[in-house]
Amino acid sequence: MPEDVAVFECDFGYALKGSQKSQCQFEGTWDPPVPTCEKMVKCRPPPSIINGEHGNFSDTFGVGAIVHYHCKPGFILIGNESIQCTMHGVWSHPLPQCEAGCVSPGIGHGKAIGRESLYMPGDIITIECNTDNSSKVLHKSQCRSEGTWFPPLPACDGVLHCSKPPDILHGSHSGLGKAVFTPGTSVNYSCETGFSLIGMTSIYCTESGAWSHPPPVCKVVKCLHPPAVTNGKLQGNTSDTYFYGASLSYSCDSGYSLIGDAFITCTASGTWSHPPPQCKEISCVFPEVQGVKKSTPGKTYRFGTNITLECDDGYTLEGLNQIQCQEDFSWDPPVPACKLTSPRSGSVGLGIAAAVVLLLLGVTIGWKIISKQKEGYYRTYENYNYKTSLD
């Protein structure tokens, strides 16, 4: 009606273009005009970068969505830290890069001027060594893109030491009990159960008093989505990836039986504990039974099939005459037997029947004889009386 106000909204995945509210005018129009719903532009999942990753795990990325990148330990981000989904449905460029950085060296009788924990390729470090006469000698070296110093860092005393090896999250190293790390000393890293080691398992102290490589990273173990099974399905929360320890189960459709392990678990190696099971169609085999006749022909029958049984002539059914195929491939009730009728019992029955027939036959004949005799007596008597009366 005139002056009524309508409020508009769009379905999920569509954006409202125009005013959210509109009023009906007396001339039958809307002011402002009725808006439209246009499909929202989305970007594909953000690209991966070598030796780095982004922190956004969303499934959808609309226009304006921002993704932040960071590098793995021992690498430095070069370029823009973030990229944004543009109105054209593509990510802004260029993507950042992760280049190997140079680890700050351990200095014996000296120090690094302007010391950092990690240096970018192209950075120059100045090493100040203390000599026996208390004078100071300066050495400069530049960080290369492969994470090494050039020229090699100087030795400021006869015996160099490396600093304590870095600790890592969800992992440990073999040097926890050591206080001094001289050149050549190696340290082995390992991760907790459920985490995999990314990087160098072992690092060693170099002649320059620096560790040979950046420390590794312990990344949580993930298993890929388990394979599907024909005529069956997965039970539990479904996802593209599953963390270590996650457990799922399979089940079969009605009329099918599960062959194998129903439960699988994501192991520390990133694989599933068992191969997927199979769903086999349930069918019952009807055994060979002498003298039996079935209402439904065949040798195998699907789950739930009912069969009515009867015996051939000369056989007697022992058991129920209707059975059904069960989930465990058996028949319920059990398959009955057809027992051959006993010849002795048949002879006795036949003899009794014959005796009865003979008895009835004898009685009939006897009755007829008696009847004839009586009939002759009456006739003789009548004749006798007749003759007497005539005389």
UniProtKB/TrEMBL annotation:
Keyword Magnesium (UniProt): no
Key word Signal present: yes
Transmembrane segments: 348-370
Domain Sushi residue range list: 1-39, 41-100, 160-220, 221-281, 282-340
Disulfide bonds: C10-C37, C71-C98, C162-C205, C191-C218, C223-C266, C252-C279, C311-C338
Alphabetized Pfam families for the sequence: Sushi (PF00084)
PROSITE patterns, per database record: SUSHI (PS50923)
Signal peptide location: none
InterPro entries attached to this UniProt entry: ComplSys_Reg/VirEntry_Med (IPR051503), Sushi/SCR/CCP_sf (IPR035976), Sushi_SCR_CCP_dom (IPR000436)
Keywords tagged on the record: Disulfide bond, Membrane, Repeat, Signal, Sushi, Transmembrane, Transmembrane helix
Cellular localisation: Virion
Protein name: Sushi domain-containing protein
Provenance organism: Coturnix japonica (Japanese quail)
